[in-house]
Amino acid sequence: MDGAERGAEGRHVPVMLDRVVALLAPGLQHPGAVLVDATLGLGGHAEAFLQRFPDIRLIGLDRDPEALRLTGDRLAPYAERVTLVHAVYDELPQVLFDLGIPAIDGILFDLGVSSMQLDEAGRGFAYSQDAPLDMRMDSTAPTTAADILNTYSSAELARILFQYGEEKFSRRIADRIVKARETEPFTNSARLSELVRDAIPQAARRTGGHPAKRTFQALRIEVNGELEVLRRALPAAVASLALHGRIVVMSYQSLEDRIAKQVLAAGAKSDVPDDLPVIPAGHEPYLKLLTRGAEKPTEEEVAENPRAASARVRAAERVREKGLVA
Known about the structure:
Elements: E1 5-6, E2 12-13, H1 17-24, E3 34-37, H2 44-52, E4 57-62, H3 65-74, E5 82-86, H4 92-99, E6 104-110, H5 115-119, H6 145-151, H7 154-165, H8 170-183, H9 189-199, H10 213-224, H11 226-240, E7 241-251, H12 254-267, E8 287-289, H13 299-304, E9 312-318, E10 320-321, E11 324-325
Parallel strand pairs: 3-4, 3-6, 4-5, 6-7
Antiparallel strand pairs: 1-2, 7-9, 8-9, 10-11
């Protein structure tokens, strides 16, 4: 979702679309194949798959009610083949159970904050424009970024800034936040952005983009529980794949990509000791990696859509089920 852009007609233009389609296509060739778009956003990927594969059924998940409303309108021509669900992607097993779907043939995760959320000033995701410090992907969720800034201890703030933002000056920024909120609680993003800029030494501001970028990322991840959700969601998604079903994960920062790499690599490795001369039946790897490391967008795509620059794609195919190898 991070890499989405608006096209000439204001439409959502997804990142690395052709490559994502190519990776998932082999599992979607048979009539009635089920594809899950776990991060529906504004529906660019979903629409492309529905157009190119006229026999698939698409299950679209999103935690943002507004995204579901807008995408429902966009996908209306395919309504008979589409089911949209207000859910976070770690709820996939329950969603599939409720729909009576025992296994799926493909699943796409396009992680991070969507273009719609970035572009709506009132959501507070962007450090470059003043807005209420909200950052909730699901507007019905209880905790906002302002709540965290105004209630977490200095140690807690420093932890999330370092852990989720990889911010070197996390303690310094956290201490200043706690001191500043004694005078006035935080409500808007411009004040936070300015505080972070002032807290970072001038020499360190010259590289790495906007000085507040890492702090805003950390707050967004904490507000939405993104990494914990992803750690639950990816193994559940792999477990939901039918034999020869495929999973594609598109991430936009190193923490997400690391989780994707670990989950897919674990499935592509036998669960017996490395020094065992023969792998017993049923203990072979259950995934086959489809990408060498993480694939990146082309220079042409980044030139057309700068938000795509940080995109990283990993993919795998399920090759074993219930102890059998295909």
